[in-house]
Design goal:
The protein is about 30% helix and about 30% strand. It is α/β, with parallel strands linked by helices and about 500 residues long. The chain has 2 domains: about 280 residues, Purple Acid Phosphatase, chain A, domain 2 (4-Layer Sandwich), CATH 3.60.21.10; about 190 residues, Alpha-Beta Complex (5'-nucleotidase,  domain 2). The strands form 8 sheets. A 6-stranded mixed sheet has the order 8-7-4-1-17-18. A 6-stranded mixed sheet has the order 10-11-13-14-16-15, with helices on one face. The protein has a 5-stranded mixed sheet with strand order 23-20-27-22-28. Strand 13, helix 6 and strand 14 form a beta-alpha-beta unit.
């Protein structure tokens, strides 16, 4: 090879490497935890109660962003199911299929399984994946045969010259967030080890690695600390509103709250397998003044008509707002538990605060609002517990309330006070029906199957005995109880679970 030829070749290689090293812009658009909220709703936290969210508004803002940048990709971080009756309507042969079609219509390129995709059974989750035109991925969920539960663990796209590798991951505590029956035979692998395995495989073939997780912000921070060579975590599950990206161990973490009220936007400059710059923000999906995609709007209107036919009727009136609380006693939780005690004639009623998903403003209440308030398919059950069992529950409840490691149980018929000192929790008083808890007595309890059957270790601290199925859905029970009175319902927080000074 002549010196001149070697010089020309070297120059070409150098110029090519410079061209490849030039930063390229890519925009990640992201949503998470849609929970069936396909239409705009009044934003409770806004003083003007403006309508926010829904797929029609999303289609408008996506168009605006795609006009701003030609190199973009839309990702969803799981839990598009459970929260609205649209999730229960069969479409394309599967319940919740309308949400899959809506995500297709707005151009979703990848989704990760969330825990609520299992609420209607494993079979329904498989059907949702089967009809989806975009990949629903998850690398660390294994079925009873030892294979991936989903068709694929990862997906790679090339957009604007940037090769993007996307790895789907679900949180390791899945068994605590869904019915055991619906998760039978499934195993969640170590999220960090699984992520690193796929990162190592994809890194040579990609410029940008995205972990698409249904994992929660705290778990995502921990995941970021344990892996190397990933660039971005697009997360969900904790419903966290990250106005701008947070950085952990050099990895950008983003999340866009929940219920399709905001669209996440992350602009990146990528070159040579490195993110050179980033800018991220959330766009409130204000409905007013939008110009939705006509097909998306018509599709949503058709399902609104179906739902209105059964869910628009007023079932009761509230004298004061019903406000849910994940780690505290709530007025809505008190009212529901009081009705359970009253109707079933039990000593104590318990439901998980996390199963109460929204707030309802004072005034007329529709069946749809109750379906959104208690969206899960939880059946009322009755069971027996000894005084010793309830004492274990009181200790468990006090510890949960003190350290907030998960949601508490709403209670009726039972009150307790505890003291916390130097990291220790001690129950100082526990009454049932106004009398001190009798360790030698047997009590009858009303609850739901999720608490008493699926998650009794977590919520109760003991295994219930003599479980009796009532066949009543909690949601239907609440509707029926509201319809029994024509007076406005007034319920209060009464201090049923208290921490002593």
């Amino acid at each position: 090879m002549s010196k001149m030829y070697r010089g020309v070749l070297g120059c070409l290689i150098f110029c090519a490497s410079l061209a490849l090293a030039q930063p390229r812009t890519i925009t990640i658009l992201h949503v998470n935890d849609i929970h069936g909220h396909f239409l705009p709703e009044p934003a409770v936290e806004r003083g003007d109660k403006a309508l926010v969210g829904g797929f029609p508004a999303l289609s408008h803002y996506l168009r605006v962003e795609r006009e701003r940048t030609s190199n973009s990709i839309l990702l969803d971080a799981g839990d598009f199911m459970t929260g609205n009756p649209i999730c229960d309507i069969e479409h394309r042969g599967v319940r919740g299929g309308a949400l899959v079609e809506l995500l297709e219509m707005v151009g979703c390129k990848a989704d990760v399984l969330g825990n609520h995709e299992f609420d209607l059974s494993q079979e329904n989750a498989h059907k949702l994946m089967a009809i989806s035109a975009y990949p629903i991925i998850c690398a660390n969920l294994i079925d009873s045969t030892g294979n991936l539960f989903v068709p694929a663990a990862t997906v790679i796209y090339e957009i604007g010259g940037v090769r993007i590798g996307i790895i789907g991951l679900i949180f390791e505590q899945l068994n605590y967030s869904a019915s055991r029956t619906n998760l039978k035979g499934l195993q969640v692998k170590d999220i960090a080890q699984t992520a690193q395995r796929y990162i190592d495989e994809m890194d040579p073939a990609t410029d940008l690695i995205v972990l698409l997780t249904h994992n929660g912000i705290d778990n995502d921070r921990e995941l970021a600390r344990k892996v190397r060579n990933a660039d971005v975590i697009v997360g969900g599950h904790s419903h966290t509103r990250l106005n701008e990206p947070v950085r952990e161990n050099g990895i950008l973490i983003v999340q866009a709250r929940c219920h399709l009220q905001e669209l996440g936007v992350l602009d990146l400059e990528v070159a040579g397998d490195t993110v050179y710059s980033c800018r991220g923000h959330l766009i409130p999906l204000l409905d007013e003044g939008t110009q939705p995609d006509s097909h998306v709007a018509a599709f949503c209107d058709s399902f609104k008509s179906i739902i209105d036919a059964d869910y628009a009727q007023v079932v009761g009136y509230l004298a004061a707002d019903w406000i849910s609380a994940y780690n505290e006693e709530s007025n809505v939780g008190n009212w529901i538990c009081d009705r359970l005690c009253e109707v079933f004639g039990v000593d104590v009623a318990l439901i998980n605060a996390g199963g109460i998903r929204t707030n309802i403003a004072a005034g007329p209440v529709t069946k749809l609002q109750i379906a959104e308030l208690i969206p899960f398919h939880n059946f009322i059950v009755l069971f027996s517990a000894s005084g010793t069992d309830l004492n274990k529950f009181a200790e468990n409840q006090a510890h949960t309330h003190a350290f907030q490691d998960h949601g508490t149980l709403e209670m009726s018929g039972m009150t307790m006070t505890y003291r916390r000192s130097e990291g220790e929790v001690k129950v100082t008083a526990c009454d049932v029906s106004g009398k001190p808890l009798d360790l030698k007595r047997e009590y009858r309890i009303a609850s739901i199957d999720y608490v008493a059957v699926s998650q009794y270790e977590r919520y109760l601290g003991f295994q219930p005995q003599d479980i009796q199925e009532t066949g009543q859905l909690l949601t239907d029970f609440v509707v029926a109880q509201m319809q029994k009175t024509d007076k406005p319902i007034l319920s209060r927080v009464e201090g049923r679970l208290r921490q002593s000074p």
